């Protein structure tokens, strides 16, 4: 005669929770890490496609002084720092891009303002890590000083507010523009 003292069989969770909980924690943590990496990749991809970044890398790779210091080919590093802000036809950028060549490493510093859809560079220079040598990538005619950029921005804002800037030979005046 069978005995009624047999224990009921435990369900799957009660038999396997000791290995299932750590596996689920690793899967959830891996999903968060993957989402973070994807987000950073998206952000860095957007910054790499920006005009200031592209212009700086193009000039860095074309500069004979930088090629002499770093060798060729010159490649950009993966992580760079700074910020790029744009809104319609205006914006600003202040970024530092690590670059390297067969002979050494360097950093490219770029500072620019976007005014009426055009980027105006105030700084674009390479600093060689080993020697601390600085190589300016802007031609003298391209250099825009912050005072000039800020004056131009103020003039642009005034123009957009239905006022026109009319320079005179002896003084500057602001007059309302016709509707």
Structural overview:
There is one protein chain. This protein is of the alpha+beta class and 179 residues long. The chain has helices spanning 12-48, 51-62, 64-70, 146-160, and strands spanning 75-76, 81-87, 90-101, 104-115, 118-128, 134-136, 163-167, 172-176. Residues 154-177 have low confidence and may be disordered.
> Which percent range describes the beta-strand content?
25-35%
Arithmetic mean of pLDDT: 79
Number of helices: 4
The H/E string reads HHHEEEEEEHEE
Beta-strand segment tally: 8
Largest sheet: 6 strands, antiparallel
Tertiary shape: elongated
Content-based structural category: alpha+beta
Low-confidence sequence ranges? 154-177
Distance between the termini: 107 Å
Computed CA radius of gyration, to the nearest angstrom: 29 Å
The helix content, as a percent range, equals 25-40%
Give the helix/strand layout.
Blueprint: H1 12-48, H2 51-62, H3 64-70, E1 75-76, E2 81-87, E3 90-101, E4 104-115, E5 118-128, E6 134-136, H4 146-160, E7 163-167, E8 172-176
Antiparallel strand pairs: 1-3, 2-3, 3-4, 4-5, 5-6, 7-8
Q: What attributes does this structure have?
A:
179 residues; alpha+beta; 6-stranded antiparallel sheet; two-stranded antiparallel sheet; 4 helices; 8 strands; 40% helix; elongated; disordered C terminus
């Amino acid at each position: 005669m069978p005995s009624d003292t047999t224990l009921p069989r435990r369900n799957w969770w009660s038999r396997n929770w000791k290995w299932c909980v750590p596996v689920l924690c690793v899967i959830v943590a891996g999903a968060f890490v993957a989402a973070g990496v994807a987000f950073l990749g998206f952000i860095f991809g957007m910054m790499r496609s920006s005009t200031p970044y592209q212009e700086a890398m193009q000039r860095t790779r074309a500069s004979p002084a930088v090629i002499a210091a770093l060798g060729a080919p010159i490649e950009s590093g993966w992580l760079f720092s700074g910020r790029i802000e744009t809104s319609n036809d205006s914006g600003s950028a202040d970024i530092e891009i690590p670059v390297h060549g067969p002979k050494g490493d360097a950093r490219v510093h770029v500072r620019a303002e976007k005014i009426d859809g055009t980027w105006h560079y105030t700084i674009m220079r390479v600093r060689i890590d080993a020697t601390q040598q600085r190589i300016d990538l802007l031609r003298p005619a391209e250099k825009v000083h912050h005072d000039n950029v800020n004056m131009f921005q103020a003039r642009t804002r005034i123009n957009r507010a239905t006022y026109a800037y009319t320079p005179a030979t002896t003084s500057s005046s602001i007059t309302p523009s016709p509707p």
